[in-house]
Structure formats: structure tokens, C-alpha cells
UniProtKB/TrEMBL annotation:
<keyword id="KW-0378">Hydrolase</keyword>
<dbReference type="Pfam" id="PF17820">
    <property type="entry name" value="PDZ_6"/>
</dbReference>
<keyword id="KW-0812">Transmembrane</keyword>
<dbReference type="InterPro" id="IPR041489">
    <property type="entry name" value="PDZ_6"/>
</dbReference>
<feature type="domain" description="PDZ">
    <location>
        <begin position="289"/>
        <end position="344"/>
    </location>
</feature>
<keyword id="KW-0862">Zinc</keyword>
<keyword id="KW-0645">Protease</keyword>
<dbReference type="InterPro" id="IPR004387">
    <property type="entry name" value="Pept_M50_Zn"/>
</dbReference>
<dbReference type="InterPro" id="IPR008915">
    <property type="entry name" value="Peptidase_M50"/>
</dbReference>
<comment type="similarity">
    <text>Belongs to the peptidase M50B family.</text>
</comment>
<dbReference type="Pfam" id="PF02163">
    <property type="entry name" value="Peptidase_M50"/>
</dbReference>
<feature type="transmembrane region" description="Helical">
    <location>
        <begin position="473"/>
        <end position="499"/>
    </location>
</feature>
<protein>
    <submittedName>
        <fullName>RIP metalloprotease RseP</fullName>
    </submittedName>
</protein>
<dbReference type="GO" id="GO:0016020">
    <property type="term" value="C:membrane"/>
</dbReference>
<dbReference type="InterPro" id="IPR036034">
    <property type="entry name" value="PDZ_sf"/>
</dbReference>
<dbReference type="GO" id="GO:0004222">
    <property type="term" value="F:metalloendopeptidase activity"/>
</dbReference>
<feature type="transmembrane region" description="Helical">
    <location>
        <begin position="6"/>
        <end position="26"/>
    </location>
</feature>
Amino acid sequence: MLQNLGFFILLLGVLVTVHELGHFLVAKACGVKVLKFSIGFGPKIIGFTKGETEYQVALLPLGGFVKMAGDLPHEELPPEEAARGFLAQPPWKRGLIVLAGPAFNLLFPIFVYFFVFLGPQETLSTRVGLVSPDMAAAAAGIRPGDRILSVEGEPVRTFDDMRDAFVGKFNRPVPVTLERDGQQRVVEVTPEKSSDVSPVDTVERGMIGVSPYPQPPVVGVPATSPAAAAGLKSFDRVLSVNGVHVQDEAALYREVAKVPEGTPMELSVARLAPMAVGAVTGRLPEVVKVSLPRQAGEGAAALGAEAVDLYVASVATGSSAEAAGIVPGDRIVAINGTPLKSFNKLSTVLNGLQAQPFTLTWRGEKGERTEKLAQAPLKTRDDYGQTSAPVVLGVRPWSYSSADLPPVEKVTIDLGPAAAFKEAALIVPKIVGQMVQVLGGLFVGKVSPSTIGGPIMMYQLAAKSAEQGLDSFLNLMAIISINLGVMNLLPIPVLDGFHLLSAAWEGIRRRPIPVRVREVANMVGLALLILLMLLAVTNDVTR
């Protein structure tokens, strides 16, 4: 608790110091007398005076201020100091002093991200862990274990690089260079168009259907297949081929490729065998040895089996699927006469159909069946005890626990000072643009006010990011600093943006905004800020 509070105070303290330091340094440079530099509001905890300025840390760490001489319209200064008052300065100087706070908040993240990016960092490599069977990568012959080297001639080192390389590339052939078994080859993929929609922008990119996360080699076994004849069963997990450990699908492809077709292979598989203890029936893992000749094809096909994707692992009690006679181990073949290649595609079609009837073809021990079905409401209860009745078919695919998943391959990227500074200088303007779009979305109603957070949310984010490591904490600090910089530039009374607007007005019109107008505007701005704070705190409590 105290540690989390410490991170929260550190986060706010640094950001407030950066903002006020901007005002302070530029005010000093412009010859303005600075009376007080405060981090926090309220009673002073510690402080000292140096020269003409008092420096202090106050009790409430939710802001700070720089008190300059002559910054109030009716404030009187001694004749010898009158020229050093804030309001006595020409508009361009006042504009620079006001702008310095938000500017420091926008420049500080470049410094933060420089240290985040500097040096060696681990990130996901371009090694393919999973290939979706119904997408472009599978059609082009890309398989698990391949390493993607370039996209349309553009070298890629990380999985994020590869995703970014497909921005704007879709619905046309794109050459991809990959490495397999030490050999390079070029394949052409035709990505599908995908739009990454967020509250701030929409990015259109090509999707080819690969993931960096490898899958265990779990097989589906047709009833009349060579695999079934040899003793394999659906949902068996291959542990080894001819004594060589197989940790993922890529390893299965690699090991069966070493065996000539027709040559016997010795497999070791893990199987969940039914086990009854009194009135309770469960499943206990056991290791089974299987011998079978190497079949034609690659991966699971070389075992006479299939990918497990479309095999039904469980059927919900009381569902339409159970009423139709679908049982675990059956394989979904087609919907409305269209062959299926993945469970994701089945889910997409079913989501679109809702309660409309459809024809479903599936294969079981007695062969294929085609029936007319319709999804129906099925009462479910979540982990929090809440009940609902979504319209579902009631079949679920095989799922893996985190303990079953093989480790994902990572690559170390080492950025020097120049490269780290370049990345930092590029990412900050991008985040600024996103912040501006979010604010615009709030005003026009595209972004929900429920996304606004206050001190409680910042406290939670600070604690969580600190648990995830220094880089995560620094990233949060940079984002909030950018947020503060952008927010303070809004032309709202009591914010820096309004003072900047006032200086610009005076510089152009050659006369200041009338005092009465300024006073009313300040009251309105203060009321708006109070309402915003109330909304933020309400959202925090609701969350």
C-alpha cells in the first residue's frame, strides 16, 4: 500500500516539477521576478529560500505553481521592481513563459522514451508460431516454424515490424521472404484488409493469419484414418517422434519431414484418459506409445491425422448442438454448404446468423451428417455469479492452458543513442496526435466521458505499471506528461492555453482582454474544471 502510494507521489511529483520548471526557467530568463516555486498545494512540508525565490514542497501532491511578481491585475509592486512584474512584460515574453510549462511536458517524454529505448530489449521475433488455416499465409504455404525476413523487400526483425510492414498492403499479392530449414524462399501472399479502429484513429493493414505464439502439436483423428488404426485418438498431444522431443507444431513439421514416406515412426503422446472416483468422473493424463508408418503430407497429415482446430472438445448441456446429437470428438465440416477451415470462421458465421436456421455438416464415428439447426438461448453463469442467456450453438473447440503453451521466441534489439533518440522523437508526436484526437472525440461525442480518469485511476495505473517494471512505469509517466501538456494548451480559463491566447490577443489587438471579461472567464473555467474533476472522481469510484 505505502509502496504504491510512493510510486503515485513520485509520478505526480516528477510531472509537476517538469511543468513548473518550464515556467520557472523561462520566467527567470525573461527577467521576471519569481517569488515562489512550489511542488504541491496546501501547507508547506519543507522549503528554503535562495536569492529572491522561496522553494517548497507542499502537502497535496496534486499540482504545483510558480508565483511571479505582478501576475495579478491589481497587484502593486515597488517602483524599482515594477518592470520585473509578469504583466509588465511584452506579450511575446508572457506567451513564452506560459508556453514553457506545456512545452516542457511535451519535450520531457522524449527524454523518458530515450532511456526506455536505449540499449538491448527483448521483443517477439518474426518466427511463425501459428498459421490460421483459412487465411492468406496458409494458402501461400507458410507454416509454423518459418521465419519471415522481409515484406515486399522491406526487412523485418520483430513481429511488430512485420505487422507495420503490411500497413496499406491488402487485396493484392505481396512477396514475402521467409527462412525455412536454413533456406530462404519467396512466397506471395494476398492479405485481407483489416481495420484497427481505436478512439483516436483507424489503421488499415493487411492480415495474413500468422501469430508468434506457437501451439502444442495436438491432433484430430478421423475414425477411418491410418492414425485411428494405429491407436491415435483425437486430442492426443504428440510428445516425441522417434525419440526426439516435439514441443510445438513447428517441431512436428520438422521431425516428420526427416522420415521417408512409408517408414515406421514411433510416437509418444499425452492423452487425457477418463477416470472415475466414486460418483465423480475426471480425466487423468497418461503417456501412450504409438507406432505407425509415415503418411503423405506435412505436420499432422504425415501421421494420418488432421489439425485439431474444427474438432469439438465439449458440448454444452441443454444446447442446440446436444439436441442435434453432436458429441465431443466430432469434427465440424461445413455450414450452409460452405466448407470450413477454422473454428474462428464458424464463430463468425454463427455470430451473424444469431437465431436464424442454418444447415450444419459434421463428421462423427458413423460418418457425416447434415442437419438443419438454429442457435438458441443458453443460460450461463460467469465467475462473478452473474447469469445470462446468449444465443449459442453450444460447441467449443480444444483450448490450451498457459502451462500447455510452448515458449515464444524473442529477439534482442540493441538501440544505440542515435537510434533511441530517433525512436523517441518519432513516438512522441504520434502520441500527441492521438491525444488531440481523443479530446476532439470527447467534444463531438465519439469518445465516451467514462474514459476520463482522476487521481484514483492514476494511483492504480502507477501501482500496476511499477509492478510490470521500470520501462512500464516510465512509459506511463511519458503518456501522462503528454496528456498534461496537451490539456494545458486548451484555451480554457485558468489553464495555460487561455493565458497564451490572452498574450496573443494583446499582441495582435494592442490592448489586453478587458479585466471584467477575464474575471468572468476565470470563474467559468474554474467551474468547468471542478465539473471535470467531479466526473473523473465519479468514474474512478464507479470503476
